[in-house]
Amino acid sequence: MRSLAGRNVFVAPRRYEGIGMAFLEAMACGLPVVAHRVGGVEDLLGGAEPAGLLFYPQHSEEGTSGLLRIFDEPRLAEQLASRSLQRARNQFSIAHQAKNMVSLYQSLSSPCIGQASEGEEGAQILGNVPYWRYVWERWKRRLILH
Asked: For residue 54, which phi and psi values (nearest 5 degrees)?
């Protein structure tokens, strides 16, 4: 992340991407992002209040236009940078991820995860799941939640 310090924008024209650490690091540094609309990138940066400018790989001129907008429109750059930082803090922090894991383990170790109606054929009833209870008990002591 040191290499991102002091930068103005993060540009990632990648044709194939899940959700790479480089995006999360740029967001954590509060950088506006200009990137291809591929894989998990749209989920990461898009939405009603986008945290970055996205463009389709076959439309490189949109990427160039987006990059120029970052430099020509300081208010837009500030908005994207702010949203980027907030999204990184709120959705991808260690504390947030730990809470999600705790919720998952709790739901998996609950006494009754799902029930079927009487006579429902092929229904799967998941009762007490000893393995997940064991995992939850073991890991909840290690997780530090804020």
From this structure: -115, 145
- Specify the DSSP class assigned to residue 141: T
CATH number, span 2-92? 3.40.50.2000
CA nearest 12: which of 38, 45, 35? 35
Which regions of the chain does DSSP assign to beta strands (E)?
Answer: 10-12, 33-36, 52-55
Instruction: Give pTM, 2 decimals.
Output: 0.60
How far apart, in Å, do the first and last CA atoms of the chain sit? Answer: 24
For residues 96 and 70, what is the distance between their CA atoms, to the nearest angstrom?
Answer: 29
Place of tokens 């007490």: 128
Q: Where are the domains of the chain?
A: 2-92, 95-140
Residue-wise pLDDT tens digits, 68-86? 898 899 999 999 999 999 9
